[in-house]
Amino acid sequence: MTEQRVKPEEKIFVALDYDNMDDALRTADKLGDTIRTMKVGLQLFFHAGPQILHRLNEMGFQVFMDCKFHDIPNTVAGAADSVTQHGVYMFNVHCGGGLAMMQRAKEAAIHRAKAQGLTIPKVIGVTQLTSTAQETLNREIGIPGDVRDIVVHYARLAKEAGLDGVVASGHEISYIREACGEDFLTVIPGIRPTWAGANDQKRVMTPGEALRLGAHYLVIGRAITHANDPRAAALRILEEVRQEAN
To answer: Has 68 been annotated as catalytic?
Structure first.
């Protein structure tokens, strides 16, 4: 298979991590001519509910629903069925839920999309959070071994389950590509331009660094949403993305 080609303006997912819908929609409106996909996480979704998904779709955006489903297979299948009905472009599940859980999620998404004539959403597995340092993984979570090895193990499991790709830090991109192939999608959070400063994420990378390693999608939040001019910040990052694409 040949590597999937993603246009520069499609590579950036903006994390709308707001506690109210008005601010989220206001920022999205400012970015409407620059970025195609908005990420809706737990904070915004629990405040605004499914309405935020429909409002963003009405504005012409694709939606990545980032709620990281992790439960017994039947429950996650039900969640996948429900979220697919809202027309999301992508949603994620935790790889730690196991093979059967991931399989059921993908199957439910396909079944619901076909039944209602919708586009089948991409289902992505969450490997390890970018806030997970080595000590956190080993001492606190209780999983032995290197973060990289666990991420690659989960990526292989996600591929076996039929998922479209995984969420991982930029530091694991090349290992995932080697293990799962170039067409297996990598969605990379923890992306911080050099001019944006630090945050609470441990395993971070610049947009250019991640793209040179082969990332398909970059999740970027505060560097854009907390900027004095979100549109200008998005255009600055998009220019870096376009330079890497040439």
So the answer is: yes
